[in-house]
Specification:
Threonine/homoserine efflux transporter RhtA; mainly alpha; transmembrane helix; about 290 residues; EamA_dom; EmrE-like
């Protein structure tokens, strides 16, 4: 049991490392957000479909689950689009940190939507995460475009929280790769018309970044993350995943030279402390 718990914690951290590449990649790609997300979803769908066929995963779903999976796919699209707008209007730190209001949102929504018991410790840890994010942010000038970026980030967080809660009961029934196959298909289908808003040459010139977003961030990262829902409640998952901005800011510093300040390091330590506390607490609960 102990080894399994450590393995699950390592899995969620590896998933967060893959997903954290979205910050630097999202800042680097030079295409309209809707085009970027649409191509990302389509490429990820193709990769996941081949993977499911190779592994022999069934793609059949019950009719009663179709609406939930469809709505969760739309929410995933809203999450990605608003998140990338937050990145475009600010930087990796602001973009990633603003969406990590979602542990707080999840802590409040999960007891009502999944009928789970409200735990005060989750609220306290979520507050610790928010405090860390306050210090992580290098600048918060509400008189410029960062205000809009943060607004997009919070909207992204709400969509992400709702999607995760909706998927909680489905991951025990369906394979995570299969669920992500459907979700990327839905996002790709909805955004497909936007593909014609830019010249094909512009898309071709960005193919390396788009493939990286599709494979590393989406097909691998989000599928691994979805699979961790089996082992923790959604609020615990959201708090554990708060290590993602730390990974993202480090990646941004390495590849985009967005060097964090001292307050950013302090915020990262606060976020990591909440992850350690929840890791220990969730281990004792198993």
């Amino acid at each position: 049991m102990k080894n399994n718990h450590i393995q699950h914690l390592l899995e969620i951290n590896l998933a967060m490392l893959f997903i954290a590449t979205s910050g630097a990649l999202g800042r680097y790609v030079q295409l309209p957000v809707t085009v970027t997300i649409g191509i990302r979803a389509i490429l990820a769908f193709v990769a996941l479909l081949f993977y499911c066929k190779w592994k022999g995963f069934s793609l059949k779903i019950d009719k009663k689950d179709a609406l939930v999976i469809f709505l969760s796919g739309l929410l995933m699209g809203v999450h990605w689009i608003t998140y990338f707008y937050a990145l475009k209007l600010s930087n990796v730190a602001i973009g990633m940190l603003s969406i990590f209001t979602y542990p707080v949102i999840t802590a409040f929504l999960e007891p009502f939507l999944l009928k789970t018991k409200f735990q005060l410790v989750h609220l306290l840890l979520a507050v610790l995460v928010l405090t860390g994010m306050y210090f992580l942010s290098p600048t918060l000038d509400f008189e410029n475009k960062y205000t809009i970026a943060i607004g997009f980030g919070v909207l992204s967080a709400l969509a992400y929280s709702l999607r995760n809660i909706m998927m909680k009961k489905k991951v025990s029934k369906y394979n995570g790769s299969m669920l992500m196959t459907y979700q990327t298909a839905i996002v790709g289908l909805v955004l497909f018309p936007f593909m014609f808003s830019v010249p094909f040459e512009a898309i071709l010139n960005q193919w390396e970044v788009l493939v990286a977003l599709a494979i590393l961030t989406t097909a691998i990262g989000h599928t691994m993350f979805l699979m961790t829902f089996k082992h923790f409640n959604i609020t615990t998952v959201s708090i554990l995943s708060s290590v993602q901005p730390v990974y993202g800011i480090l990646i941004g510093a390495l590849f985009l030279s967005e060097i964090p300040k001292g307050t950013t390091i302090l915020g990262g330590l606060l976020i990591l402390s909440s992850v350690v506390i929840e890791s220990i607490r969730s281990k004792r609960a198993t």
